């Protein structure tokens, strides 16, 4: 249950509290990346629910509930492995989607520097601590944060941010997979202990 709640909190933080949340402020958003986070939150909710029923099965010493708990953990484990492989395979697509969003905003700004997109592109520059698609573009009048010591390429920064976030997701996924394996082992041990106790009675 605690692991499930931790996964939910982590997924929601990446979606609404991290740097990637800034890309949802526009009409477009990197759906491929966010879809993976929604799957992560869903898995966390499922883990929390399954953990509750596992506690009930252990408290009532029900082999049926504990067996169902084991089966659910096995499904969750398979889903985690699949999601992890899917995330790393789809990393390139997620990066391209996020970069395309920035490039569209950049092109809109170049067409109309004084329009509404001015605040949008500044928002991206502030979140990513970058300026433009080229290190020399700060001189063209782009709205860039004043505290940037060295203007960096925003497309490169987007790639770095997604790489870092996916590594975090991978680490959390491996940790939760380990907890899931221990849960399956202990549930089988408990189920066998209950069976042996009833046979002795």
Structure write-up:
By secondary structure, this protein is mainly α. The protein has a domain at 1-60. 76% of the residues lie in helices and 0% in strands. The protein contains six helices and no strands. It has helices at residues 2-16, 31-60, 63-89, 91-111, 117-128, 154-200. The model has no long low-confidence stretch (mean pLDDT 75).
Q: What share of residues is helical?
A: over 70%
Shape: rod-shaped
**Count of strand segments:** 0
| Helix-strand category | mainly alpha
- The succession of helices and strands, N to C, reads HHHHHH
Give the low-pLDDT segments: none
Average of per-residue pLDDT values: 75
From the N-terminal CA to the C-terminal CA, the straight-line distance is 32 Å
Count of DSSP-assigned helices = 6
Oligomer: single chain
- Report the portion of residues in β strands: under 5%
Largest sheet: none
| Cα radius of gyration in angstroms | 23 Å
Which secondary structure elements does this structure contain, and how are they paired or packed?
Blueprint: H1 2-16, H2 31-60, H3 63-89, H4 91-111, H5 117-128, H6 154-200
Helix pairs in contact: 1-2, 1-6, 2-3, 3-6, 4-5, 4-6
Fill in the keyword field for this structure.
single chain, 201 residues, mainly alpha, rod-shaped
């Amino acid at each position: 249950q605690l692991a499930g709640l931790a996964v939910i909190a982590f997924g929601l933080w990446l979606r609404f509290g991290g740097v990637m949340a800034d890309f949802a402020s526009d009409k477009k958003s990197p759906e491929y990346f966010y879809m993976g986070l929604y799957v992560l939150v869903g898995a966390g909710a499922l883990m929390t629910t399954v953990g509750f029923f596992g506690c009930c099965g252990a408290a009532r010493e029900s082999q049926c509930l504990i067996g169902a708990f084991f089966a659910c953990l096995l499904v969750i484990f398979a889903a985690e492995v699949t999601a992890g492989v899917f995330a790393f395979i789809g990393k390139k697509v997620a990066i391209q989607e996020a970069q395309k969003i920035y490039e569209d905003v950049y092109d809109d700004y170049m067409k109309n520097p004084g329009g509404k997109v001015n605040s949008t592109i500044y928002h991206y520059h502030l979140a990513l601590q970058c300026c433009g698609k080229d290190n020399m573009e700060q001189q063209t009048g782009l709205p860039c944060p004043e505290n940037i010591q060295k203007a960096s390429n925003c497309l490169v920064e987007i790639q770095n941010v997604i790489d870092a976030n996916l590594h975090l997701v991978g680490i959390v996924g491996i940790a939760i997979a380990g907890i899931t394996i221990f849960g399956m082992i202990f549930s089988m041990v408990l189920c066998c202990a209950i069976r042996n106790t009833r046979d002795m009675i």
